[in-house]
Backbone:
């Protein structure tokens, strides 16, 4: 009979605890964060990707790869050489010689001064042959970096989803343990009153106290898990969740 009355007492306290009116926060941004993943997750994705150090490294690698492509296209110019030269002198004008001229006498033969100027361009045939292959190789390196960028973004999204789900679950667990703790606290108060009136024995009161202690410990553990999940998600996105939701207005 005593066990039955104690069980009914604890059930009544649980009902009273769960039936307490809670503040209506359905319309708040923070409540929507926990109840509307379709709205929260895109904001979390963008923030996490923008904050990720691995994305900064890939961006730097991408810029290097793009610069390598530009240099590869110009590489053929490194093998091009240019030169110039000139010479001058005089030559005999045979058309102006006459029969009285002595061709063996340089002073008696009409001459014409002349000069030549030349420009030459040389280039490496090997550079031209290898240029296309070298540029293609550098383009493929850029594509590899871009592929790694997409894979990294995907991994970040997966991690954010996991962290978000853990946070939502931790919040629900904490709310449940809060209700259980309120129930245990009410049970303890009623049990103390009934014990002082001699309606229950010491062992029944101790059972209620033990239940209250376990509920208090469970609540602390749930709070710790919730806070840890909250901070881990904020660390990943590089800002507070509250700021993120304000930005998303």
Residues:
């Amino acid at each position: 009979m005593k066990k039955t009355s104690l069980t009914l007492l604890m059930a009544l306290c649980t009902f009273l605890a769960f039936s307490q009116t809670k503040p209506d926060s359905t319309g708040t941004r923070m409540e929507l964060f926990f109840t509307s993943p379709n709205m929260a997750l895109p904001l979390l994705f963008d923030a996490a990707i923008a904050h990720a150090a691995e994305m900064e490294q890939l961006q730097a690698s991408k810029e290097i790869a793009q610069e390598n492509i530009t240099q590869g296209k110009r590489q053929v110019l490194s093998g091009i050489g240019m030169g110039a030269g000139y010479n001058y002198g005089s030559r005999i004008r045979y058309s102006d010689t006459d029969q009285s001229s002595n061709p063996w006498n340089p002073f008696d033969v009409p001459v014409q001064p002349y000069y030549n100027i030349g420009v030459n361009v040389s280039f490496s045939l090997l550079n031209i042959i290898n240029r296309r292959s070298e540029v293609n190789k550098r383009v493929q390196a850029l594509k590899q970096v871009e592929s790694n960028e997409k894979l990294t973004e995907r991994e970040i999204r997966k991690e954010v989803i996991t962290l978000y789900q853990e946070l939502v679950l931790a919040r629900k667990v904490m709310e449940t343990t809060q209700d259980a703790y309120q129930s245990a606290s009410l049970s303890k108060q009623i049990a103390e009153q009934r014990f002082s009136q001699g309606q229950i024995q010491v062992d029944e009161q101790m059972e209620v106290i033990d239940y209250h202690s376990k509920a208090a410990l469970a609540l602390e553990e749930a709070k710790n898990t919730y806070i840890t999940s909250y901070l881990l998600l904020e660390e990943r996105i590089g800002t507070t969740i509250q700021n993120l939701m304000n930005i998303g207005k």
Remarks:
- The beta strands are 81-92, 111-122.
- The radius of gyration is 44 Å.
